[in-house]
Design goal:
Elements (H helix, E strand, L loop, with lengths): L3 H12 L24 E4 L5 H6 L6 H10 L3 H4 L5 E3 L9 E2 L2 E2 L6 H11 L6 E5 L1 H8 L7 H6 L8 E4 L4 H9 L2 H17 L3
Parallel strand pairs: 1-2, 1-5, 5-6
Antiparallel strand pairs: 3-4
Bound molecules: iron/sulfur cluster (SF4).
Iron/sulfur cluster binds next to helix 5.
Pfam families: UDG (PF03167)
Protein name: Uracil-DNA glycosylase-like domain-containing protein
InterPro entries: HI_0220.2, Uracil-DNA_glycosylase-like, Uracil-DNA_glycosylase-like_sf
């Protein structure tokens, strides 16, 4: 049964989680942001070092890019009544050749379903990047991330797949102009609907 009290209790459990401590170079520090009236969820990868330090989700260049895609400023983005920010891994997972390691695989199976149970007004889950899409779309994913994002209408209204908004996505957007022309307007429409506008 969803209630503010049940959600606070659950968030306290998440914040005390140490399940994969031995794999986390900077130790556990779950970074997420969830309110019981959230309309949209953002499921990204895992915090980088900057977000680990600040404790604020998407407090980096990728976050600026994501906010531009959504058409919202920092203040609106931080509204827990609008956005639930629930990455695939809540703690910084360390480095691997070429960048950050993937989100810890223990995290989403342990927490996501329990958190989403507490969000009865959720309309759409934004699946940001390959890990979120693999977990939530499973076999209904297309062969590539580009093809999955291009087929975004197949997954609405529950899911909307997006690329990860890193610097690489800027090059990707140039090669795939349909993203700006078709996907971003649909994304902003979901935001407007969620705001009741
Ligand atoms: S990544 Fe997830 S499962 Fe691992 S310690 Fe952090 S909250 Fe717990």
């Amino acid at each position: 049964m969803a209630s503010k009290r049940a959600l606070s209790k659950l968030l306290a459990e998440v914040r005390a989680c140490e399940v994969c401590r031995e794999h986390l170079p900077l130790g556990p520090r779950p970074v997420l942001s969830v309110g019981s009236s959230a309309r949209l969820a953002i499921v990204g990868q895992a915090p980088g070092t900057r977000v680990h330090e600040s404790g604020t989700p998407w407090d980096d260049d990728s976050g600026d890019h994501l906010r531009a895609w959504l058409g919202v400023d920092r203040e609106l983005f931080s509204s827990v009544d609008l956005f639930a920010i629930v990455p695939m891994g809540f703690c910084y997972p360390g480095k691997r050749a070429g960048g950050d390691a993937p989100p810890r695989p223990e995290c989403a199976p342990l927490w996501h379903a329990r958190l989403f149970e507490q969000l009865p007004q959720l309309s759409t889950v934004l699946l940001v990047g390959q890990y979120a899409q693999a977990y939530y779309l499973g076999k209904s994913r297309k062969k590539t991330l580009t093809a999955t994002v291009r087929a975004f209408e197949d997954y609405l209204p529950r899911y909307l797949p997006l690329p990860h908004p890193s610097w690489r996505s800027r090059i990707w957007m140039k090669k795939n102009p349909w993203f700006e022309a078709e996907v971003l307007p649909a994304l902003r429409e979901r935001v407007q609907l969620a705001r009741g506008l």
